Amino acid sequence: MKKGNKLKASFYLSDDVVRVAQDLLGKKLCSHIDGVYTSGIIVETEAYSGRNDKACHAHLGRFTKRTSTMYQKGGTAYIYLCYGIHHLFNVVTNVEGIADAVLVRALMPTEGLDEMHSRVKTKQADYKLCAGPGKLTKALGINKVRNGIYLASSSDTWIENDLDVHASEIVATTRIGIDYAEEDALLPWRFYLKGNKSVSKY
């Protein structure tokens, strides 16, 4: 298996999580798990800031067993179980001690599609395999076991450069499922590639 241009550690250390959420669009999320390589282009993300965002798990410095991963250095994978069913994959950003993260919401599948179909165990079009945060982790075989891994050096889960995305191709809108966040629910911190069929439906 040949690895492409893996993102360097410096990419993840930006202090602007909203910018990183946009910059991740067009990048390729890769997994090499149980001897099988799968990947997909990131087409949808959401930004969360622990400093000033009521939707963030670490809002106002909240530190728990689950959120402790968010305080690690940028480039750490923050993976947690949602509703006891779905594993959600997040990319920690910023320097150690500041809990910012980007939720990867959808991928456009590129490699290992047969394995993805086998993992999800449902018949669906290829472009739908990773059209949602819980769907993409299942398709790529990513779960809580990989919570806390460092993406810049990991050999089983990492992110590569791939597509060049122009600002005109990015749609900014409100995030999903965070009505509890009051005024912060209105922040336009969800980003997706305009017209891409693999963007999540909700």
TrEMBL record:
Entry-linked InterPro entries: Formyl_transferase-like_C_sf, MPG, MPG_sf
One Pfam family named in its UniProt record: Pur_DNA_glyco
Group of enzyme by EC: hydrolase
Keywords: DNA damage, DNA repair, Hydrolase
Molecular function in Gene Ontology: alkylbase DNA N-glycosylase activity; DNA binding
EC number in record: 3.2.2.-
GO biological process terms on file: base-excision repair
TM region positions: none
Family named by the database record: Belongs to the DNA glycosylase MPG family.
Protein name: Putative 3-methyladenine DNA glycosylase
Source organism of this protein record: Marivirga atlantica
Organism lineage string: Bacteria, Pseudomonadati, Bacteroidota, Cytophagia, Cytophagales
